Amino acid sequence: AFVEEPVGASTPSPALSAMVGEIAAASSVVFAGNLGTAQSLDTILDAAERVAARGQPIRFFIVGSGSLSGWLAEEVARRGLTNVLLPGRFPSSAMTSIYASATALLVSLRDEPIFAQTIPSKVQGYLAAGKPIIASLNGEGARVVVEAKAGVACPAGDSEALADAVIHICGQDDDARREMGENGRSYAQKHFGLAGLTDDLIARFEALSAQRRESSR
C-alpha cells in the first residue's frame, strides 16, 4: 500500500504537504493501507454515505492502493461521494505526518471468523501514532482498541454502526480525543514494545511451567 522512499529523502513532497493540509483542515478520518477484499471497503463507503446524509462535514481519506483501487475510484464516483477522497499511495515515512493530521484513524475488516482471531498490524501502528481509533472489526482487534481505551469499536460490516462511531469520535472535544490517543500510545508501548513483548513471553512461559508442574503431581 505504500511506496519506498529514496534513501536520503526528507523533504515532504508538495503532494504530501497538500494532502496533510487538507486532512487537517476539517474533521477527517484516515484509512491507510492495502485496498483489497479483506478491508471491507464497501462498508466504509456505505458509512461515508450515511455520514453525509446526516449532514456531518466529516471527510474520509482512503490512503493506499491494492486490488480494489480501480473499483473503489469507480464506486466513489458512481455514488457521488464528495466526502471520500482517494489520494493514492505515499511512502511509509509519510505516515507519521498523515496520521498526525487526522481527527481519527480507521481500520476495517470483513465479517469473517478468520479475521476475528488476529490483531491487524495496522491497529498496532495506529496505537503508536497516538490518535483515536475507529475499529470496524470483530474479535481480537476490537478487543485491543476497547481495552486500550483508545477509541471505539463496532461490528465488522455494520455500516450504520460505523457511521455512528465516526460521528461520535469526531464530535468529541480535543481533550477527549487527545486522551484516547495517549491511552493508545501507552498501550502500544506496554504491550507491543520490546519490553512489553518480553514481559508477556515471560508471563506465558511461567504460566506454562506452572501448568506442567501441576499436571506432573
Description of the molecule:
- With 217 residues, the protein is an alpha/beta fold.
- The protein has a single domain (14-182), classed as Rossmann fold, CATH 3.40.50.2000.
- It has helices spanning 14-25, 41-53, 69-79, 95-101, 113-116, 121-129, 140-148, 159-170, 174-191, 194-215, and strands at residues 28-34, 59-65, 84-88, 104-108, 133-136, 151-154.
- The protein has a 6-stranded parallel sheet, with helices on both faces.
- Helix 2 (41-53) runs parallel beside helix 3, helix 2 crosses helix 8 (159-170) and helix 6 (121-129) crosses helix 9 (174-191).
- The longest helix is centred in the last third of the chain and has 22 residues, at 194-215.
- It is globular, with a radius of gyration of 19 Å.
Features:
alpha/beta, Rossmann fold, six-stranded parallel beta sheet, 10 helices, 54% helix, 15% strand, disordered N terminus
Low-confidence stretches: 1-10, 194-204
CATH class, please?
Answer: Alpha Beta
Strand content: 5-15%
**If helices are DSSP runs of H or I spanning 4 or more residues, what is the number of helices?**
10
- CATH homologous superfamily title: Glycogen Phosphorylase B
Give me the secondary-structure category.
alpha/beta
Q: Give me the count of strands.
A: 6
The whole-angstrom Rg is 19 Å
Helix-strand topology string? HEHEHEHEHHEHEHHH
Q: Kindly give the count of domains.
A: 1
Record the strand order, biggest sheet: 3-2-1-4-5-6
Helix content: 40-55%
Q: Please name the CATH topology.
A: Rossmann fold
Overall pLDDT: 88
Question: Which descriptor suits the 3D outline?
Answer: globular
